[in-house]
Amino acid sequence: MTSPSDPELRARALEALLIGKGLITEAAIDDRITLFNQRVGPMNGSRVVARAWADAAFKAELLLDATAAIAPYQFVGGQVDKLVVVENTPEVHNVVVCTLCSCYPLAVMGLPPKWYKDPAYRSRVVREPREVLAEFGLMLNPDREVRVWDSSAEVRYMVLPMMPQRLAAADEATRIAAIHRDALIGVVEV
After folding, report:
1. pTM greater than 0.70 (yes/no)
2. Architecture of the domain spanning 41-185
């Protein structure tokens, strides 16, 4: 049995302190964890992308008005009041950033990764997107245009990645599992 890491120990201590002071219950903590593991997160965005790959009418609606297109899903977690989905194509690669802070569509992409909030990412991806993408291991054809989308409190962006050929005959569950949060930001491909 491995011992817990320092962050795990701190989380356990904080949890015990909050429960001990009566500020929160163990059930409330479990409910919050369930919420983020099952109802809020990148699996929601992955479901949307997998459907767009399989359903041309849904894809067209998603690209026209993503907020309306995802409304029937009743995602919780917020930050999708004005969601715009941008499509990667062989000619154009999209990447998302928030240059001011870390605006991010939580309901479809879950919690933002630490690097998304980092000032270096936020400033560099705008100035030198190809170099930043290369640091993520994404080497783009020099002829492919790179578009950087700046999320804000008013508009949040999500990338619709291209479906790789290896997933063309895959079932929905396999497609969903292959779509990583970082592809929804645009720093990797599926």
Report:
1. yes
2. Alpha-Beta Complex (3.90)
Dist CA 77 CA 134 (whole Å): 31
Mean pLDDT, consecutive 10-residue stretches, the chain (190 aa), reads 71 87 87 66 88 98 96 80 95 96 84 90 96 97 97 94 96 95 96
SS3 149: strand
* Catalytic site positions: 98, 101-103
Distance CA 126, CA 150 (A): 9
Based on its alpha-carbon atoms, the radius of gyration of the chain, rounded to whole angstroms, reads 18
Q: What tokens were used for 160? A: 């619709």
DSSP string, 28-54: HHHHHHHIIIIISSHHHHHHHHHHHHH
